[in-house]
Amino acid sequence: VMADEIKILRLPKASQRAQPRAVKKDLFAALQAAGPRVILDLSGQSTLNQADLDLVLDCAARTAGRGVQLSLVATSPATRLLLEVTRVASVLPVFTSMAEALAQPTPTVDPNSPCENPAETSSISGASPSRSVP
Amino acid sequence: VELGAVIVVGSNSNPSTSMNAGERSVFPEASATVRALYSPRRPILGNDAVQLWMDRVRTLKVAGLWLAPDDSGSRSFPSRLADLIRQGVEKLLVIKLKSYAEMDLSDLLRFHCEKRNPVTDAQDARGSLGVRLLNRSAVDSIAANVQPSCSPIAHSATHYRFRGYTKSLLSSQERQDLVRDALSGNCALRPAARQVQDQVWVGEGAMIDESVRMIGPVFVGSGTMVNAGATIGPFASIESNCIVDCGTSVARSTVLPHTFLAPGLLVQNSVVDGDYLESLESGTVISLAAARLARRIRPATAKRTLLRATPPANSFVGAGSEAGWKFPATNCVDGPLAWVRVEL
Q1: What angle do helix axes A50-63 and A118-126 make, rounded to 10 degrees?
Q2: Is the CB of residue A30 less than 8 Å from the CB of residue A59?
Q3: How many CB pairs under 8 A join A and B?
């Protein structure tokens, strides 16, 4: 979904993702062509599993360093709490509604900047929701 | 005066009995594991609430002390109380495990004798604390009316207003408040562990990597392992036999026994029990299982993990670990299935 310079990507519900790899591929392709601002809409998710968190972190990794601001919309309190516990919320802005996310100003991007925020990028890599339990 | 005491103990395995109607309405569909977050039998800084009440009862000259299953609303409960009366008990102290109260029970007894009412109910500003004194006549009356609603909990009573320190054990927020107060020295409860530094208590056999940042006040229970780079505190309680993996931060929170926390997590203002986390700010309860962020570990699992781990040089190892990674049996067992007389 395009709204001016903002690209909105909706993560389908887990139950509707018959082919997770295809979803991931489509999502990454859309990210590749995105402008300065991308909103990943998680409002279809009542909670997040390991694959969902991996996908969010992959998206963050792919947008970081390209001057693209990625933000998340999570309407479910459980999803927001999971994003806090996994520290995703401390490196990506999380909004409780799409209207709130759209109201945020689009950042001015310096095209010569190699990485918007290297510290945040490394923090995302450091988050470890995908680590297995013993 | 022949005084007897009964502590009505909820069970971890049947946690719904320890929830009030309000809590049940909050999580009508919640699994037993979620509801167990509200069990009053969950340890508080290594202390068992039942044991704390038993210690208070022992200060009275009681003829007998019994632990009873939580069936105070059933028909059999009044008849069991009547049995005690038939054994010669003149007054019965009945404590339903729902609160922590720093109560002088002898003062309650004195008040009860002075008022000469058959039933005295101890209350704080918010209502009943679950502590009642009953005369023989009250028990006989209850036993004669074998309706569940006539249990001692529902009987009309004179109110003994307790103005000392109390916290509800049925509320996660109040339990965390109790943890905070105990760690700060603002109540009489103390962590059941050795104080190794200022405001840092560590239980027997706990193992904490040297790189772990401990921000007091903080409690780490017996047999718990905290791995490299973790940050614990302030006002954090990691109960017994837990594993907190690398880089995870726990602040203003309680991690209940036998819980594994995955690496890199940020746990704040929460209670974690196995794979469930409750936010104390929002009241939201989430499962961390699907994201594989936490899980319940059996004591044997924790022990195997600890035995595999080689203690790094300079790591702090809790007292008693020299004896070989001791895992003392938890003192927070399930409630009794039948009435149990406690040796005094």
Answers
A1: 160
A2: no
A3: 73
What rounded mean pLDDT belongs to chain B?
81
Q: Which region among A45-59, A98-112, A117-131, B165-179 has the lowest average model confidence (pLDDT)?
A: A117-131
Q: Give the amino acid at B82.
A: A
| Nearest by Cα to A46 from B105, B290, B61 | B290
- Cα separations (Å) of B161 from A29, A78, B108, B111, B112? 68, 40, 9, 10, 12
CA-based nearest residue to A38, from A21, A18, A61, A19: A61
**CA–CA separation, B169 vs B175, rounded Å?**
6
Test A130 with B292 for CB contact under 8 angstroms.
yes
**Paired strand residues for B65:** B5, B342
Is the ipTM higher than 0.90? The answer is: no
| Helices A20-32 and A50-63, axial angle in degrees (round to 10) | 20
Lowest mean pLDDT among A116-120, B10-14, B217-221, B337-341: A116-120
Q: Nearest 5°: phi and psi at B343?
A: -70, 130
Comparing A38 with B25, which gets the higher pLDDT?
A38
Nearest CA in chain B to A47: B286
pTM for this structure? 0.81
Mutate to test the interface with A, among B266, B271, B296, B298 (most CBs of A within 10 A): B266
CA–CA dist A44, A11 (Å, integer): 7
Q: What are phi and psi of B112, to 5 degrees?
A: -60, -45
Output the six-digit token pair for B220. 């780490």
CA distance B208 to B210: 6
pLDDT classification of A15: cutoffs 50, 70, 90:
low
Q: Decide: B245 and B307 in contact? Cβ < 8 Å.
A: no
Cβ atoms < 10 Å from Cβ of B150: 17
Q: How many CB atoms lie within 10 A of CB B310?
A: 7
Label residue A26 by pLDDT band (50, 70, 90). Answer: confident
- What are B273-322's pLDDT values in tens digits? 999 999 999 999 999 998 999 999 976 555 555 444 444 444 444 443 33
